[in-house]
Amino acid sequence: MLLVIPNQNPDQFAKVEAGTFTALSIWERTHIQEWVRQAPEVLGEDLLVVSMEFDRFKQSADRLDILALDRRGSLVIVELKRDGLASYADLQALRYAAMVSSMTIERLLPYFVHYQQKYLQQADANTDRAREQIQEFISENETFEELSNRPRIILCSENFSTELTTTVLWLNQVGLDISCVRIVPYKVGSNVVVVPTKIIPLQEAKQYLIELQQKEEGREQHVVQSGRPETFKLLMENGYLAVGDSIYLRDKLPSYVDSASKAATNDAQFRAEVLPRQGKSYTVRWLHNGQAYSLMNLTQTIFEHYHPAGVRPAGMQAGRHWCLADGRNLVELADEVWAGLQGKNETVTSPGA
């Protein structure tokens, strides 16, 4: 919703609900593609458009909506959809990224020249001048020599499905660079106002994903090096946790969860109780609703509830966010316990002991 406020009478306002591009007879190629081509900053950053409807793919009739460069010199695939039915936009964009991943500056220059001649009416455009323009634009990378073989992707649509945003978050976590920009139209008098919002990555989500990736890498390295048992199993079997104990969601939280936990008047939403073991699995009871969860599922549920875009995070090491009442982190405590056990074993088996 928008509030439209008359300049001469700011005490008054009108509420304007979001419309749809379909209802407003706005089309993807005729309108949205032209807006983004002429004003790429609507996507939230400076971009240099170098080609439109790029179709120079071998053995494929696909057309890439917009091909651009960012300030670091990375290729950027911009995939546009005018409505929320962009269920396969992620896969389509990944295919385009793979197809242009081998692109070099020398191969890109003729396409950039063609774009300047066709869309910018620069009849005298040539490869030398195009090269200079690219070098001037890439101001954030003084050592730039060649295009990366890992292009970035920007998906731009009126809406995005949960399936798509979940996929994008996971792809970012495993090392790709994909953004989602929502563009919403509002009919204001005789005009249409388009409001862009970058929903992925939000700054909080971007930082969280970076931390998550670092934690996963550290966890994988730790498991390979130590072969440590699962956190709950280790703490329960060595007397550091018992059925009925409380644990608290307090540590290494993304900012949107951390601020919510600090503002909470009680800790029920951020507290769980250890339940008896069920088969090979350990579960906890969430004090907020009395339901049983695995620690992973509960952590994801809480994070999703407080996420500004309602996004459920992908893989994580949930125990890194939970603590005992005295503030000790479950994973860090388990690491200490395991190291102590390993030390004892070495003492017992060492020569001359």
Would you kindly provide a brief summary of this structure?
The protein has helices at residues 28-38, 89-100, 105-119, 127-137, 162-173, 203-226, 231-237, 255-263, 295-306, 330-349, and strands spanning 2-4, 14-16, 48-54, 64-69, 75-80, 152-157, 178-188, 191-200, 246-249, 271-274, 284-286, 292-293, 322-323.
What does this structure look like?
It is a single chain. By secondary structure, this protein is α+β, with helices and mostly antiparallel strands. It folds into two domains: 155 residues, Trna Endonuclease, Chain: A, domain 1 (3-Layer(aba) Sandwich), CATH 3.40.1350.10; 144 residues, no CATH class. 38% of the residues lie in helices and 19% in strands. Helix 7 packs across helix 10. It is globular and about 80 Å long. It starts with a strand and ends with a helix.
Major sheet strand order: 3-4-5-6-7-8
Strand runs, count: 13
User: Which structural class is indicated by helix and strand composition?
Assistant: alpha+beta
- Portion of residues in beta strands equals 15-25%
Note the overall shape.
Answer: globular
Number of domains: 2
Q: Uncertain segments of ≥5 residues (pLDDT<50)?
A: 219-226, 347-353
* CATH architecture grouping of the largest domain: 3-Layer(aba) Sandwich
Classified by CATH, the class of the largest domain is Alpha Beta
Mean pLDDT: 84
Radius of gyration: 26 Å
Distance between the termini: 74 Å
Could you state the order of secondary-structure elements as H and E? EEHEEEHHHEHEEHHEHEEEHEH
Counting DSSP H or I runs of 4 or more residues, the number of helices is: 10
